[in-house]
User: Which sequence fits this backbone?
């Protein structure tokens, strides 16, 4: 099993930036593929971005060009740099260790207009 701990959420005005972090503890072979997702109350959790152990990345159309996913393997940490934030980005953001199906506890991001 792996435990994922997210941090970096908060409140920001539209156009601002935040960087989320997700650190893995435990069975870190689960972290070969990591992803970020987000969820708004009453809606399904949606995919945001993913990164493989070789550094290959993917993004949803809604964040492409504004968000950047990266990783620091020495720290077992994945980052999500979020720029040009919009009110529509407001959600709880979760990281996931895809191979093990493990989720973090989530971190709230609120973007005000």
Assistant:
């Amino acid at each position: 099993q792996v435990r994922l701990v997210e941090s970096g959420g908060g409140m920001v005005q539209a156009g601002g930036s935040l960087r989320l972090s997700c650190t893995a503890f435990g069975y870190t072979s689960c972290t070969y593929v990591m992803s970020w997702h987000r969820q708004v109350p009453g809606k399904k959790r949606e995919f945001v971005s993913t990164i493989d152990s070789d550094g290959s990345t993917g993004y949803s159309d809604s964040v492409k060009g504004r968000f950047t996913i990266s990783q620091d393997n020495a720290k077992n940490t994945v980052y999500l740099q979020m720029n040009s934030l919009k009110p529509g980005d407001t959600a709880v953001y979760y990281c996931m260790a895809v191979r093990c199906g493990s989720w973090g506890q989530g971190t709230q991001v609120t973007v005000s207009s």
Remarks:
- DSSP finds no helices and eleven strands in the chain.
